[in-house]
Design brief:
The chain folds into 2 domains: 2-39; 61-161, Sandwich (Immunoglobulin-like). The chain contains 2 helices and 6 strands, in the order H-H-E-E-E-E-E-E. The protein is α+β, with helices and mostly antiparallel strands and 162 residues long. The chain is elongated and about 55 Å long. Strands 1, 2, 3, 4, 5 and 6 form a 6-stranded antiparallel beta sheet that branches.
Length: 162
């Protein structure tokens, strides 16, 4: 009888210790799965993410900003497109300025913009025939070309009532 009681108390104590370990792990944002798995620092993670197995930077595309706004009686669209490498070409294609009319988006202008030998491309345009009270947006395909490989991303601004 005493041994069964001892085993029951021991199980409760071990269960509480295990629960405390889980709570402590949650406070430091990771749960230790095994001795073979060790969390690395942010600096180590960034180093790993910035190079592949051969030490070559991975090729990727990201857009940091794509915005539509009103300034000086003109409608402006501006963007910044980033590549993780210096690209032979970086830009935006099939860039459509659209207005909302009768329940649908109507394309009112189309253009493409690009630059060469860059990892960041910031540019924009303005439209001087915007009509007050009309909703506008812009949409297009951001792209980067590096060593013959092309990465693309469809991007769309928020809507703006002029």
């Amino acid at each position: 009888m005493k041994s069964k009681l001892f085993i029951a108390v021991l199980c409760m104590v071990l269960g509480l210790v295990n629960m405390i370990s889980v709570v402590e792990a949650a406070e430091v944002s990771y749960y230790e799965n095994s001795e073979d798995q060790v969390q690395i620092s942010e600096e180590e993670a960034l180093e790993i993410l910035s190079a592949d197995e051969n030490g070559i930077s991975p090729f990727a595309l990201s857009t940091t900003t794509f915005k539509i706004s009103k300034k000086d009686s003109k409608l402006y669209v501006a963007w910044t497109i980033k590549s993780t490498t210096t690209s032979s070409t970086i830009g935006i294609s099939s860039l459509k300025l659209q207005k909302y009319e009768n329940g649908a988006w109507i394309t009112i202008s189309t253009a493409s913009y690009s630059t060469s030998n860059a990892s960041v491309y910031t540019s924009g345009f303005y439209y001087s025939s915007a009509v007050s009270g009309t909703k506008y947006r812009a949409t297009g395909t951001a792209y980067t070309i590096d060593s013959g490989s092309k990465k693309t991303m469809t991007i769309t601004t928020s809507e703006l009532t002029y």
